[in-house]
Amino acid sequence: MKRMKLILTVLIALLVVLAPACKSRKKPVEPTTVPATTVPDVPPPPVQNTDTRVTPPADFVQETPAVREEVFPADIEELNRYVQTKGYLRDAFYNYDEATLDDAAQASLTASATWLKGREGAGYNLLIEGHCDERGTEQYNLALGDRRANSAKDYLVTLGVDADRIRTVSYGEERPFEEGHDEASWSQNRRSHLVLVR
Fold first, then answer.
1. What is the rounded CA–CA span in Å between residue 104 and residue 131?
2. How confident is the model at residue 47 (pLDDT cuts 50, 70, 90)?
3. Could you tell me the domains of the chain?
4. 175-198 burial by CB neighbour count: b if 16+ within 10 A, else e?
5. Consecutive H or E run containing 192
6. Contact assessment for residue 188 and residue 175, using Cβ atoms and an 8 Å cutoff
7. To the nearest whole percent, how much of the chain has pLDDT over 70?
8. Contact present, 128 and 142 (Cβ < 8 Å)
9. Angle CA(134)–CA(136)–CA(142) in degrees, nearest 5?
10. Which residues partner with 192 through β-bridges?
11. For 145-174, what is each residue's pLDDT tens digit?
């Protein structure tokens, strides 16, 4: 009986020592299977088109749009008002007592050159009028107007407008665009004015 007690004591001691070790062991996780009803429907892959021709979409417009030609006035004065209003021809403006073209004047003349070299403007010649404000002598302003008109002509020629199509004239202060006697009026009168001629 002592022997039995001893065996039992040893067994209990072994259980006490080994029991915590058994608890820390994790059971292996068995993979779960997803039921067939929860698998999302996957569309089949698109069928590759082996036809090499390009097919336009159903809403593709097959008609060529009609090109509407712009109708220009036959009267030369009306035509000049029309192209100025549309911005096809733009005047170059100058600072006081100057005949050099600033960036704004160059941009205006560039737009004008583009139209003059295009289909619509190619049939017209150009008169460039040099204008000044009322300050300065008449003789001085005529010379300044001439320099302004020629600076505009030279710039248009560098942009590809044929020099034979361009004439210049100076009106000095004689034909003001604005009648006022202040800077707002004077700034409108210091210009090279572009006029279409036949």
1. 17
2. low
3. 86-197 (3.30.1330.60)
4. ebeeeeeeeeebebbbbbbbbbee
5. strand 191-197
6. no
7. 74
8. no
9. 85
10. 92, 130
11. 999 999 999 999 999 999 999 999 999 999
